[in-house]
Write a structure and sequence with these properties.
The chain is mostly helical. It is built from four helices and no strands. The protein is rod-shaped, with a radius of gyration of 31 Å. It starts with a helix and ends with a helix.
């Protein structure tokens, strides 16, 4: 095997792996489940795009692609920081809201059980009073 054959195989393999990771990341962005997951997915897409650009730059031998990849990395970092600040400024995340909803549902179930128990005791007392009145 010649060096050129190994080089071409390596570039093809790198592009295939990057393509697979691209589709897996797109799935994670669409699936979610929370906003921070989606933001991390977008950050991962930037990393994958940098990988694509680097592999194409290596294949073509054109060094300007590396400069473009560096610039994309800087822009991607700034976008991630901006999204993180947005999440922090929003206050509660989806996880916090879900946790509060679960806690509220649990408290509501406890209150319903307590009310049902009180109603059953009141019915029992009424039945006992009715029995004593019949005597």
């Amino acid at each position: 095997m010649s060096v050129q054959t190994i080089f071409d195989f390596s570039v093809t393999l790198a592009l295939a792996i990057l393509s697979l990771s691209f589709f897996v990341t797109i799935y994670r962005i669409v699936k979610g489940p929370t906003l921070p997951d989606r933001i991390l997915g977008l950050d991962m897409l930037v990393g994958i795009a940098i990988g694509f650009i680097a592999v194409v730059g290596i294949k073509t031998g054109y060094a300007l692609y590396i400069d473009v990849a560096i610039a994309l990395g800087l822009v991607g970092f700034l976008a991630t920081v901006a999204f993180a600040r947005f999440i922090l400024s929003r206050g509660k995340t989806e996880d916090d809201i879900l946790a509060e909803a679960r806690q509220a549902a649990s408290e509501a179930r406890r209150e319903v059980r307590a009310a049902a128990k009180t109603a059953a005791q009141a019915q029992q007392e009424a039945a006992d009073t009715a029995k004593q009145g019949d005597r």
